[in-house]
Amino acid sequence: MQKETIPELACPIAPVVDIVFSRWTTPILWTLHEHGRQRFSELERRIGTVTAKVLTQRLRQLERDGLVVRTYTPEIPPRVEYEISDLGRSLGPLFHSLADWAGGHLPAVDAARASYDAAGKPRP
Asked: What is the dihedral of CA 70, 21, 97, 38, to 10 degrees?
């Protein structure tokens, strides 16, 4: 009988990948890091292709995870702003490492894909 492996034990970075690399997390954190505190509409405009519903969901999750701080100002009209937290900012070296990797390795990935496709292999 095969024992069931807990994913976190098989790959200790799996929880981090789930938190940080979900579809819209990196663009949100990158934008907040680059442009500072922003209102929802500014963030939505800068990211571009994300829907308001999805952006709201991701911002709530990021706030829950401690990566984003939401500030509500009770004025008329009410103002809500988002900024990256210290915990979110601590991901900076990871993102910079990934950006460096992408700059040096994406051409090799593109070449491998072209070679795979040219061989007539089925696309995943």
From this structure: -20
Q: Cα(58)–Cα(7) distance, rounded to whole angstroms?
A: 23
Under 8 Å between Cβ of 8 and 16 = no
**pTM as predicted:** 0.77
**92 in Cβ contact with 33 (< 8 Å):** yes
Six token digits for residue 75: 């004025």
pLDDT in tens, the chain (124 residues): 556 666 666 787 888 888 888 889 999 999 999 999 999 999 999 998 899 999 999 999 999 999 999 999 888 888 899 999 999 999 988 888 888 998 889 899 999 999 999 988 888 7
Report the distance separating Cα 7 and Cα 18, nearest Å.
Answer: 12
Burial of 33: CB neighbours in 10 Å, binned 0-12, 13-18, 19+: middle
C-alpha distances in Å from residue 30, one per residue of 5, 73, 77: 34, 24, 28
Backbone angles phi, psi at 22, to 5 degrees: -70, 165
